[in-house]
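FAQ: What does the model actually see?

It sees only this:
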Amino acid sequence: MRFSLIDSCKPQKNKSYIIIANHTSMLDIMLMVLVAKNNPFVFVGKAELAKIPVFGFVYKRTCILVDRKDLKSKKNVYSEAHEKITSELSVCIFPEGGVNDDESAVLDPFKDGAFRLAIEHKLPILPITFYGLKDFFPFVLKKGKPGNVLVKIHEPIATESLSIEDKKDLNAACHDLILRQLTTFRAEQIKEQ
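And it is asked to produce this:
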């Protein structure tokens, strides 16, 4: 897989962030590892994926696992994330919470977990937009094509002055930022055709 950074900021090396990105492909995780390599991080991911042979073995050792149907599991995410953050790691969350089966969906609503973590730990949010992964490497088998994935790392969004009551506004601001990038990019692609 090839990728190119476009008009991106350079996050401070080895600084902790809550990293978020849109989630549309089976290669989002691998791409995130390549893009954020200067900021060691741990993923928050679905517990079900730990059952996949070979992949699951590595996945459960590198992720904070969450069973979204289990309230206790959801609560444990916060304590495990706190432990990782105090060890100076970043935490990466795909705030859509999964991949939509509707291939025409651009960006699903975000869940609040990433924004709550960022505010509680006074960590900046580092939004990242992945362009084209849905076309090149979708979750649908036998679809996709080779290509160069474009990535934009946005300026970090500070949370030091925010309180937990600001969680919904922070969520909306981040969602709007990534959605605006995706729709602008899609419109530019259509113009070029």
